[in-house]
Write a structure and sequence with these properties.
Elements: H1 3-13, H2 15-25, E1 38-42, H3 45-55, E2 59-63, H4 78-86, E3 89-92, H5 98-106, E4 114-116, E5 124-125, H6 128-135, E6 148-149, H7 156-173, H8 178-202, E7 210-213, H9 219-224, E8 228-231, H10 243-255, E9 260-263, H11 270-279, E10 282-285, H12 301-315
The structure holds zinc ion (ZN).
Residues 72, 151, 215, 217, 288, 290 line the site of zinc ion.
């Protein structure tokens, strides 16, 4: 996407959603004032989940990545560019979704109404194996994703930091409901803390600590709980491995006694199936929770992470 059409569509559309927002707020003069709702645009599911839990009934959250859509390389519709312009709060992570970065850069947003998660958590450099996946592409597409691994939300500790940051933003935008936001954030933090404890306990003693994943989404999770991630695809699921990399992974599975090749909901399992077939391993789901799908529409970040834990402990023979 070039810069010029984006600017054009922005200027054409900027006024339309503004009228809609004014109409829905009646005579109220600010977010949350007199019972109005604070509008939040979240760039993809995990941030929408936190905004909904912390904001409760005082926020109206729009997820820019529709259910079933793989959020890497998201394209924004003109209406969504308008949402990025007009929402009281935009939550995104720089260098994960270039279209959202562009929309935020080009929007004329109020100071304090934007939350970049990359400034909230400590990013890790892209894992070596995942970089190789990129190199095969031979394009400068890699630079859209930066040199850091964006998959911060798969470490529950990072989700606690994100919860705290969302709370602070909502309190600043809508101080009338500060107590509600604090209570909601405390409740979610408690659940995330328990989740983290259960991961640490569940993965304490395992027969193997190597995890073969569909794409390189699990570095933060692996680092937190002392696992080693071997990704089939790169940081972006569309960066498929070379034949040589595939051969390496197949050999690793055979020599390390790995029982399970992990697949995910929003990415084709074809390559994982091939490796499983060649090695006699089984496949199971490890969800990077980049979005919900038809099959997971009743789930949340917390329930999907618990399924991930169950599948990890089974695959790695943890006791
Ligand atoms: Zn990913």
């Amino acid at each position: 996407m070039t810069m010029i059409p984006m600017k054009k569509s922005l200027s054409l559309l900027a006024t339309v959603p503004l009228i809609a927002v004014l109409a829905s707020c009646g005579s109220d003069d600010g977010p949350g004032a007199g019972g109005g709702t604070t509008t939040v645009a979240a760039s993809f599911y995990p941030f929408a989940f936190v905004a909904e839990r912390v904001g409760g009934s005082f926020v109206d959250v729009e997820n820019l990545t529709s259910p079933g859509v793989e959020p890497h390389d998201l394209e924004l519709k003109p209406k969504q560019v308008g949402t990025v312009q007009d929402a009281d709060l935009v939550i995104y992570e720089e260098h994960f979704q270039a279209a959202v970065d562009d929309a935020v850069d080009q929007a004329d947003r109020a100071e304090g109404g934007t939350l970049d998660i990359a400034s909230v958590v400590t990013l890790k450099p892209t894992q070596a194996g995942a970089e190789e996946g990129h190199a095969d592409e031979g394009t400068d597409q890699e630079h859209d994703h930066g040199d850091d691994d964006p998959h911060t939300w798969l470490d529950p500790e990072n989700m606690i930091a994100i919860t705290k940051a969302v709370e602070a933003k909502l309190v600043a935008l809508d101080p009338d409901h500060a107590d509600d936001y604090a209570a909601n954030a405390a409740e979610l933090t408690g659940e995330l803390t328990t989740l983290g404890t259960d991961f640490a306990t569940g993965l304490q003693t395992c027969k193997t600590r190597t995890v073969v994943t569909s794409h390189a989404a699990f570095q933060y999770l692996a680092a937190r709980y002392d696992l080693t991630q071997v990704p089939i695809a790169g940081i972006d699921p569309s960066n498929e491995p070379s034949p040589a990399q595939l051969a390496d992974i197949t050999q690793l599975v055979n020599t390390q006694g790995i029982t399970t090749i992990f697949t995910e909901e929003l990415v084709s399992p074809a390559i994982a199936d091939t490796i499983a077939k060649e090695t006699g391993a089984t496949t199971a789901t490890l969800d990077p929770i980049e979005g919900l799908s038809d099959d997971t529409s009743d789930e949340t970040y917390l329930t999907l992470m618990r399924k991930n834990l169950k599948n990890l402990t089974k695959a790695n023979s943890c006791s």
